[in-house]
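ok new one. same drill as before - structure tokens go in, u give me an amino acid for every spot. 247 of them this time. try not to just spam alanines like last time pls lmao
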């Protein structure tokens, strides 16, 4: 017989369309079998107990990034977090920080997507299109693997301390995606393309406190990208100041 355990889920509730209502917690006592994820319980609560509960989800496989939220004080994906992993029978769920809340666990990710669009997150070619694909060596592919793994869940953005003081900060995920294309052997974006992040709202705003690394569910390590972009910018400035000075 499968043994069930009872858990209390405390979920922060808020509806931006109901001014004056204010945030509040709703509690749900649920019996959970081993192996169930936080997302599975959320779906059960919405379907069987409270149809007004709002949250995002899609793949249930830690691929789409839709279900990012704060789970007992830690930013993670609800679909990959098992309820039984906690040593408490109370699970507190809150929306991602650094975003305006639309309703309950659903946040407005417009700032995140605006910064992502800003870095032109696609291959840019100057050469004529080849007749066939552009081959890459294993070594060339390995250079970008770390950043290709980003699923745009915004866990890093929610964990970062910078957006709270600088609303136009480029953000960890956008920096990681930019480094992904800068390192791609097939990309031919112009040398000045990095100037979009070469200011106090770009890579120089990062505090390098590694919260984005701790929060990332895919080991992308966005801080590595920030440091890499900084190095590229400094090298570019050195070359402009001292032509021929670096071999």
């Amino acid at each position: 017989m499968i043994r069930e355990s009872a858990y209390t889920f405390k979920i922060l509730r808020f509806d931006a369309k109901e001014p004056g209502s204010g945030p509040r917690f709703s509690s749900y006592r649920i019996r959970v079998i081993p192996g169930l994820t936080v997302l599975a319980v959320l779906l059960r609560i919405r379907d069987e107990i409270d149809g007004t509960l709002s949250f995002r989800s899609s793949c249930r496989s830690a691929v789409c990034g839709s279900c990012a939220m704060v789970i007992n004080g830690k930013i993670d994906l609800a679909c990959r977090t098992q309820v039984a992993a906690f040593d408490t029978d109370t699970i507190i769920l809150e929306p991602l920080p650094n975003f305006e809340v639309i309703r309950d666990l659903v946040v407005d990710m417009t700032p995140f997507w605006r910064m992502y669009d800003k870095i032109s997150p696609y291959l840019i070619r100057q050469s004529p299109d080849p007749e066939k694909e552009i081959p890459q060596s294993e070594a060339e592919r390995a250079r970008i693997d770390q950043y290709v793994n980003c699923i745009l869940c915004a866990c890093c953005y929610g964990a970062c301390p910078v957006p709270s003081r600088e609303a136009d900060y480029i953000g960890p995920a956008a920096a990681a995606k930019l480094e992904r294309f800068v390192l791609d052997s097939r990309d031919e974006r112009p040398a000045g393309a990095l100037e979009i992040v070469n200011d106090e709202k770009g890579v120089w705003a990062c505090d390098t406190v590694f919260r984005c690394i701790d929060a990332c569910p895919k080991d992308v390590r966005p801080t590595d990208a920030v440091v890499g972009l900084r190095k590229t910018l400094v090298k570019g400035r050195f070359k402009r100041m001292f032509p021929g000075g670096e071999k």
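The helical segments are 38-49, 110-118, 138-148, 155-159, 172-182, 211-215, 222-241. and btw Strands lie at 5-13, 24-32, 68-71, 74-77, 90-94, 100-103, 106-108.
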